[in-house]
Amino acid sequence: MSLDLIDADKNRAGIWYGVAAYTLWGFLPLYWKLLQVVPPIEILFHRIFWSFIFMIIIVAIKRDWKAILAVMANRKKLLLVFFSGVLISVNWYVYIYAVNTNQVIEASMGYFINPLVMVLLGVVVFKEKLSRWQLTALIFAAIGVLVITVQYGRVPWLALYLAGSFALYGLVKKIVAVDSITALTLETLVVMPVALFFILRLELSGTGSFVTAPLYLTLILVGIGAITAIPLLFYARGVEKTTFSMMGFLQYIAPTISLILGVFLFKEYFSISHLISFSFIWIGLAIYSLASVGLLKERVQIQAGK
Q: Over the stretch 210-251, which tens digit does the pLDDT of each residue have?
């Protein structure tokens, strides 16, 4: 078998891993709806705790303790991991809250906006220069947010919190440069003691949902660990086997699925204003994505040569 065929097979496998990861993330609201009787903050505590337990099992199976110990021995990296653990916990809580208070559409908006917020952070933090197309994409996204703000008389804070917290999380991960499995294990480790403390406090006071809940609900709470970690493992494999730009394209699968669930399954209100707002954001994302792979630049050059 030629090297080209091996590379093609590897790339194809990477794409499928990416599709699997983003599809699972897209359908995640269905899982949170199963836990709608549990307060969002309690779901968060269980997500942190059981994700940590699941990741420790994965690391034990792989016998890959060296990477974890190396980060723990580096004070600067450990501090950054702590910040990323706090950021992802905030992101998880806001998303769970959004889903279980029937705001899935606004949550999906947040993840559509996220790539453009990351571009903005690149300008602010790393002093990166915006291309004309990136600036155009940001303007379209800003118009989309402005439309929904003016129509409803309020800023879509949930969407902005989700986009901002996940963008900041990505920023910290870029700085700390740790693989996904090690990162999630340590991120959940640093906030796990707080989560465990509150779980025990709720259970001892008789207001917790773990011990007194029906068996099926207890199993769903335990399953949060796997639901959190499995898409991340698929994502890590996808990044290894295909290009980062391809994974960038695939990331829109998740909020698209969530949007469809919000409109057609959960019957959330979707007005003409929503459509106009999302359309501006989608146009911005299309411009950003095409510019990222050089297609818009190439077309401009072709036109200039005529």
A: 988 899 999 999 999 999 999 988 888 887 888 766 777 788
Tokens representing 88 are: 């992802």
User: What is the torsional sign of CA 197, 200, 205, 209?
Assistant: positive
Direct distance between the N- and C-terminal alpha carbons of the chain, in angstroms, rounded to an integer: 43
d(CA 289, CA 101): 32
Rounded Cα–Cα distance for residues 13 and 265 (Å): 31
**What distances in angstroms separate CA 232 from CA 104, 142, 150, 189, 205, one per listed residue?**
21, 30, 37, 16, 34
pTM for this entry: 0.88
| Structure-block tokens of residue 152 | 């409803």
User: CA-CA-CA-CA torsion for 59, 63, 64, 66, nearest 10 degrees?
Assistant: 130
